[in-house]
Amino acid sequence: MRAKSTVTALAIVFTAWAVLAFGCFTGSANAAAPVVLKIQTAVPAASVYFELMKRFGERIEKMSAGRIKTEMLPEGAVVAPFESLDAVGKGVVDGGFCWTHWWSGKAPGALLFSAPLAGATVGLDQLSHMAWYYEGGGQKLHQELFDDVLKANVVGFLLMPMGPDPLGWFKTPITSVADLKKMKYRAPPGIASEPYKEMGVPTISMGAGDMLPAAQKGVIDAGEWIGPAEDMNLGFHTVWKHYYLQGLHQTTDVGEFILNKDVWNKLTPDLQEIFKIAAMATVTDTWNFDVYRNAKALEILKKQHGVTVHDTPQDYYPAFIKATQTVLEKYSAKDPFFKKVWDSQKEFAKIVVPYWNKVLQVYVNQGLTGAEMNGFK
Questions:
Q1: Is residue 96 part of a domain?
Q2: pLDDT for 163-218, tens place per residue?
Q3: Is residue 68 within 8 Å of residue 32, measured between CB atoms?
Q4: In the structure, what pLDDT confidence band is assigned to residue 31 with cuts at 50, 70 and 90?
């Protein structure tokens, strides 16, 4: 009797283990497939910022334990760069990487998120601008832009502070604004180019991939993009040899990630939080990336490619800031949302800029003194 009971007990244990194993197997086999998001960037595959977007995607995949995967595409892979907002909103692609000021032709206030000209003329630099975004209500206004002004079916995140952008590349040196006015100059799209037009500079807007062919054909005489590392990767130094690092049109230049809102709403709260954290991590990633890679690239451009780095003519600064003030006041007077965002930045700047200017003086004096003492000024 005992032997029969033992056999029965073993049979029950074996059956239980078999059922458990089968359940695990079938559960694994029937597990939901990962969500694969197709994301088109507004930069070529050679861009350092394409590399950063790939890191962004990899970070999301790792933090989600493979539940979300991303396919990063270079500019033009599915739609033209300036069509990405509509493409993401309509679900042609799931997400996009671009710049908010690209949409300033549709909504002037878009300018103030990714390219507040000359610090929005209230003294915000790139660090304090990002502080406004995360701590001063900028992030809420950013989504309000998409929801209520652009009526775009997207969720947006600022994630790549890549400025300040240089005045750019020139075929011949310039010594004054008068010289700049003689150049056909590639400027940012939308309102970001308007101060140059106000100054009398003929401007042309185009994507990064079109700039080098345009320079080679003489369609443009000068142009700005992002910074030494990015510009060198795109080959601008092969046509132009005169480079001006100091520009005011994008002292703050922040790239944005947009995701189709229907896709976003289907994500569980933990996956939505992963996107938010990945975006914030990319902010830090970009700062680290830019400081070292731009400095290293500038040395290569000077020593290996014969590029001459010039100081921007002094009359550029008052001319640009005056033109910017005219442009911002014009849009503030006629566009309520523009005024709302600019007023928010002004209120934030009243508190932050006096403190931050004092702090920055420490770093400037420390840097100049240290460089001089160590012979690498």
A1: yes
A2: 899 999 999 999 999 999 999 999 988 888 999 999 999 999 888 889 999 999 99
A3: no
A4: low
How many domains does the chain divide into? Answer: 1
In a domain, 225, yes or no: no
Q: SS in 3 state form for the chain?
A: CHHHHHHHHHHHHHHHHHHHHHHHHHHHHCCCCCEEEEEEECCCCCCHHHHHHHHHHHHHHHHCCCCEEEEEECCCCCCCHHHHHHHHHHCCCCEEEEEHHHHCCCCHHHHHHHCCHHHHCCCCCHHHHHHHHHHCCHHHHHHHHHHHHCCCCEEEEEEEECCCCCCEEECCCCCCHHHHCCCCEECCCHHHHHHHHHHCCCEECCCHHHHHHHHHHCCCCEECCCCHHHHHHHCHHHCCCEEECCCCCCCCCEEEEEEEHHHHHHCCHHHHHHHHHHHHHHHHHHHHHHHHHHHHHHHHHHHHCCCEEECCCCCHHHHHHHHHHHHHHHHHHHCHHHHHHHHHHHHHHHHHHHHHHHHHHHHHHHHHHHHHHCCCC
- Write out the residue range of the structural domain in which residue 122 sits: 35-162+252-291
Question: Residue 114 in contact with residue 254, Cβ under 8 Å?
Answer: yes
Q: What is the mean pLDDT of residues 331-355?
A: 98
Q: Which two tokens stand for residue 189?
A: 């799209």
Q: What is the pLDDT of residue 47?
A: 87
Whichever domain contains 114, its CATH number is: 3.40.190.170
Residue 236 resides in a domain: no
The reply to whether 172 falls in a domain is no
Q: pLDDT tens digits for 285-316?
A: 999 989 999 999 999 999 999 999 999 999 99
Greatest Cα-to-Cα distance within the chain, rounded to the nearest angstrom: 109
Note the pTM of the prediction, 2 decimals. Answer: 0.85
Cα of 122 vs its chain's centroid, Å: 22
Mean pLDDT of the chain: 91
